[in-house]
Amino acid sequence: MRKLLLITATGLAALLLHLPADAKTPPKKAAEKQVAEPPKAEEILLRHGLEGRALDTLATLALKFNETQKGKVRVVLQGLGGLAGAEERRRLPHMAVLHTDDSLNFFETLPRFRPLYQVMADGGVKLDAKQFYPLVADAVDDSAGRLQALPIGLSLPVLFWNKELFRKAGLDPEKPPKTWWEVQNAAGKLFDNNSHCPFTTSRFTWTQLENVSAQHNEPMIQRPNRVVLNSLINVKHLALLESWHKSLYFRYYGPRAEGDQHFLNGECGMLTSESSLYAEAVACHLPVGVSAMPYYDDVYGVTPRNVVPDGAGLWFLAGYKKAEYQAMAQFVAFLMRPENQRDWVRATGYLPMTAQAVAALKESGGPADLLDAAARRLSDPKVARVKSGGSLERLRTILTEETDALWRDEKPAKEVLDNAMRQANGGAVGGSVNVR
């Protein structure tokens, strides 16, 4: 009996979600009249890379949705970790919860996506883009304001620090660095205390270039359909990171979320990454603090809070039948119910998408002051940025490839950014960069 009680909600939901859709009853005797079988449910495959409470919650939501469909539609979860190899990943699902920077890892290719606004039109289901907070919608819409994906996994860039490593280095564990010069000072003391990773980052181009430029009012988009990568602030910041890398104050582990695990393992004193990582850090019993992104206090016009959200969305693969897109649209409408948004945000730590989600969180006992602050922040005016989709992913790829030369000590910061901008504006990002 005790073993039965140890079965998790994830295991139970996964079992129910993966039962064969067309299981048949034993054959009747020949003399009995044949009864027509009910029509097979429309199966919608949803790929993800989630774990822990996020997976539990997604599985529960999918199960509840399936129950509302009375056998007509069934969403089936497919964990990325359960796929045997490249061949299985190439068999594209209907939907995926992913950060589009991770498309190659998810699919072994760069597939075509069908925009969310078209999926909802196919399904005859209304989805008002105006209900989303401006900064949330801005992370997944195009230059015409049309939603490309459902922004269910967004975060803000933040600074994490390991309080125990701070204490050992003689730093105040309750006082995080606010400016990049204070980060440098803290990194130096951590290094002197034998830390081999004083500071690292995840999602490098998003945290260290896109957001740093936005904070200092030198956005990467300053002219229509042209990116400006070699601005004074980007050159200044990348040159500083270059000097830290040479002096071993900064460790670069990769362009995506590689730095997260090194921080969670207790190796690094500081990390810039996605705000949603906080829940995972607490679950790891790491003595962690979290604060706003650092900034340069010697730059005129700096606006430290002027950062741009980013992260995972629910994306829809192209090439399916209208009936399948109708089923996907119904699933999106289900996820948008306030109680479902509430459960998702509470379990994952991702940003709330709508005012309805914030209201539901308050009603369930969420901290009203923090939720109100989040609502105000997400209601801020949009900033100029490269829009989500192929243009943004290709731009990030260019920046990643060019900055690799920086870490190998082959090119200085200014040359790296000059080369990246030349490629981006020369057509490598597309004939017309999708910006706003």
Explain the overall architecture:
This protein has helices at residues 2-5, 9-17, 52-68, 86-90, 103-107, 116-123, 134-138, 163-168, 180-192, 204-215, 232-246, 258-264, 277-283, 322-335, 338-348, 355-363, 368-378, 390-407, 413-428; strands at residues 42-48, 73-79, 95-98, 150-155, 157-162, 199-201, 221-223, 226-227, 250-251, 270-274, 288-292, 310-316. It has a 5-stranded mixed sheet. The chain folds into 2 domains: 9-17 and 39-154 and 311-375, D-Maltodextrin-Binding Protein, domain 2 (3-Layer(aba) Sandwich); 157-308 and 385-428, D-Maltodextrin-Binding Protein, domain 2. By secondary structure, it is an alpha/beta fold.
Q: TL;DR?
A:
The strands form three sheets. Strands 2-1-3-12-4 form a five-stranded mixed beta sheet. Helix content is 44%, strand content 13%. It is built from 19 helices and twelve strands.
List the total number of helices.
Answer: 19
Name of the CATH homologous superfamily of the largest domain: Periplasmic binding protein-like II
Largest sheet: 5 strands, mixed
Strand arrangement, largest sheet? 2-1-3-12-4
**CATH architectural label of the largest domain:** 3-Layer(aba) Sandwich
Number of E-state strands: 12
So what's the oligomer here? single chain
Uncertain runs are: 1-33, 428-436
User: What fold name stands as the CATH topology of the largest domain?
Assistant: D-Maltodextrin-Binding Protein, domain 2
Strand content: 5-15%
- Structural class call reads alpha/beta
Distance between the termini: 59 Å
- Rg on CA atoms, Å: 23 Å
Q: Name the helicity range.
A: 40-55%
The tally of domains stands at 2
Question: What is the overall pLDDT average?
Answer: 89
What's the CATH class label of the largest domain? Alpha Beta
- 3D shape: globular
